[in-house]
Sequence to fold (686 residues):
Amino acid sequence: MNLKQLAEKLGLSQTTVSRALNDYPEVNEETRARIKKAAIENFYRPNTRAKSLATGLSMTIGHLIPVSTKHEIVNPIFADFIAGAGETYARHGYDMMLSLVEDGNEERAYRELKAKGSVDGIIVHSPKMGDPRIALLTEIGLPFVVHGRASHVTEDYSWLDVNNKRAFSRATEFLFSLNHRRIALINGLENLDFAHRRKSGYISAHDGAGVPVDPEMMFSGEMTEVQGYLSTRQALDHVNPPTAFLAASMISGIGVRRAVQERGLVVGKDVSIVIFDDELSYLKNGHDIPIFTATRSSVHFAGQRSAEMLLQIIKEPASGPLRELLEVDLVVGQSSGPAPARE
Amino acid sequence: MNLKQLAEKLGLSQTTVSRALNDYPEVNEETRARIKKAAIENFYRPNTRAKSLATGLSMTIGHLIPVSTKHEIVNPIFADFIAGAGETYARHGYDMMLSLVEDGNEERAYRELKAKGSVDGIIVHSPKMGDPRIALLTEIGLPFVVHGRASHVTEDYSWLDVNNKRAFSRATEFLFSLNHRRIALINGLENLDFAHRRKSGYISAHDGAGVPVDPEMMFSGEMTEVQGYLSTRQALDHVNPPTAFLAASMISGIGVRRAVQERGLVVGKDVSIVIFDDELSYLKNGHDIPIFTATRSSVHFAGQRSAEMLLQIIKEPASGPLRELLEVDLVVGQSSGPAPARE
DNA sequence: ACCAAAAACTAAAGCGCTTTGGAAGAAAGG
DNA sequence: CCTTTCTTCCAAAGCGCTTTAGTTTTTGGT
Fold:
């Protein structure tokens, strides 16, 4: 059933029916009630395409997920982020469009999205340092919110980020307070901005404590279980192995733990592990006492908030660049303890 | 730049330009070349909304992800499935729309999708036993492919599934062959069809081997790490604890391992663990020797194939219900070994 | 009872595309 | 040389909605 048919059935013009359903004032309340009733009875739903063609609004938010042809990996963190964002969109009548876009094709993909008019706004994922997408989106005038930030970018833009630097400096300091002096960092890919910030937090804590940073204790890579495992093995093989590990996610932390246990070392005693916990729904950090000591920030919440911010910017572009920095909790779990006494 | 402007610029009618770009024959090859060149130079992209309004095709595939208001959990398996499907859509010029739909609202959500004309087809996720969505989608005439199957459904429909029953009977038999006689099943939610089939595979292997099934060794729940952990603890607390665990996913397997190790038991020696490995990109089952002995089937591939099937059905509805049953590999890893001798 | 203003409705244009039904000109056939 | 058939192009309708610019009906003030 489309508008025309509904209008005919009611013996009214399309104009009136459309106005009644969209709560315009210039329609008699009695008629409006009659129209709304008929709309419900006939399960009338305006055709989205027609509506958006007429209004110029697509009522759709795009999520462009960078996919590397080499690694071809989809971050599990997306699942929870998207769940959070999706809720918000649904509540506001927006749809969510997902596109996987390959490394080199990013500029084209974004321009296309604008030209095709398929979205009203975009969430930018996994910003890299000096990410060119920010200038690009500003140029083409597509509203966007970055999940994360991009260092070395001069534009003013909207973002929501976790205080990654602080998170990692706090975690490092916490380990220092337990007398650890040799801490391995199992980081994400360091061309990604968040990983860069985490590293700088790790380094600044070392500087603050006067502990030298050893580049051989810093690992970076895709945040997979296997990467956590392999990096940890390498770290433990060092002539001067670490007594503690700082892992970028629950998943790499699990890899760290596997490698540690494989060596017959006891987590929380021989070796401490601190992770960054995104509160992934399928990988919660335990049910009572946290499995891992962790800096914690819900990526589900981040998704929700980012979406809200984006919708706000779309509604009122003048409300200007919005920024939000989330602080993390430091929760102490079973995976950390005082550094073992040196023999 | 829209069609009208492009046509004016070229001194041609919209008709000719449109036809040239869509490779219709009734246009001079020289003119076509000229038009295509201009289109590229001006980065012309037809407005999707207008196009789909005119053609009646939305060129969009919908993924409705069931979200429970109670658990509010997004399965990480979706991430990889969607990555696979997304690739395929991109290659064929389709967009992907994601909606989170709450438990009770499913029927309405599907009908709305049809009425609003937002998608040309749908992938049905997480089918339950006797899932009503299949009858519903058949009734409203929206092309769909089910990822999984639904027992007790009489309709003919398209699906792509893993042979879950066989996977779990093989895994169980494998453990029997290692002399395990008491095997705990850490299953997914058993109202979900795949979990039901896995259970029946587990049971049929017991029947085949003449080993009685103990309901107290069968656990079911959301496939999280914590659920795996808690179920395992409960199983190990039993007066007659199991010597082996069969876990529904990598993630629950990790929970099983945690509980086992917490008791000071050695995986692969005191206790064997076999998992179902979906080949999640972030949780690969090790890099050389598999961490866990597993039945393996790539959910990324499943996403790809499901998408291909759906596009095929959309293109040629007559090509009828398509079905595809994927068999799993049984890969032996480090987590299984002969049952410990009874004292 | 009359006129202006407000209320309630409608016809038609327009969003940007595809597609139908021609039309004009060139090539082919007799 | 005239008719027929291609070839190549175009004007205009239509997809289903919103919205502008009116038109008709009611209301209210005098």
Remarks:
- Residues 2-4, 14-15, 18-19, 22, 46-47, 49-55 of chain A lie near DNA strand D (CB under 10 Å from a C1').
- Chain A touches chain B through 59 residues (CB under 8 Å).
